[in-house]
Amino acid sequence: MVEIPGSARLVLVEGVVHLNEEEAVFEAMLEGWARQQRSRLLGESTILMRDRLIRRFAGFAECYPWVWRPVDIEDFTVSLTSGKDRLALSTIRGYHLALRMFCDYLVDSRYEWARQCRDRFHHVPVQVCHEWNTVADLNDYEGRPQRRPLTYQELQRRLDYLDDRVERIAVMGRKGSASALRDALMIKTTYAYGLRRNELARLDLADLRPNPHMPEWGSYGAVHVRFGKSIKGSLPRRRTVLTVPEFDWIVPGLQQWIDQVRPLFRAADHPALWLTERLTRVNTRHIDSRFAAARDAIGLDPSLTLHCLRHSYVTHLVEFGYPERFVTEQVGHAYASTTAIYTSVSNDFKNKALQNALSRLYHPNEPRPSGGEGEP
Fold this sequence. Notes:
single chain
């Protein structure tokens, strides 16, 4: 008989008497679930996060999974939504989903946990999560409403601040001008290609690709993203993000970084595109901190994060007139509906679109105004 990963037989030895049988079976359940998740190629960080949640819930309920009840889920949820440290709706939904999956694993007859619990404790695990005690998936987007695309004016102020900071450091003769230039170009690259912060941090030199249709851009005609956001525990998704004409100002910046500035770090054969002075890859925490520093320096809303540049990229591609499918492919969304959530076109763009429609219907012989706005 072939045992599937996560089966009770693989993590419990029949006939062995444990000093604390309940604790031993609980640990075996967690180990079995971890094996089952690894067989599905889920990441270790995901498995560890779920393990901690199950232990946390068991501690809250003060009992083991084979005696959990639906009311335990309800009480746990109330505790998560109470007090000043209440969790976001999306976080609670994630907790509910993980608890539901763990219970599904326990009650699945293929893993034989019901039989083990019945024979040992005269109880069997049940599914304690149902539609009446867990968060319903009602909204397409539950992010904070304060987070939005930046306007062209806000983007211009930010980019000007980053450039001025590099110049000020260089003029004053202080150390750090190379690092300041790197930080400025990282933030600019985030916007110019609509990248997530981890995608930006994990870029290598080899990920810069030419575009045969634009040979004058050299090796900067596209960026190959190898560590895109995964879906449901799958491997990172890959995509190629093309440089678009409206953002071609990023090309000379990347050229300057690679040809003139990056060699000052004595990177040798290090593959990373973005390096620290200690020859390590720049991490996402540093990227976030530099974005926050620039945001606060020019007085923007503290709710704006680096990810808002990705929203800006999507919105501005739409305003430039790129087809919906092209925008979806550029940012690596599985569905166009996700891209639509990111989009928040300006009033000026909507006014121009309406003006075009009115001219087309009521004044077809008059020249139409151009659509789209210029880059920052």
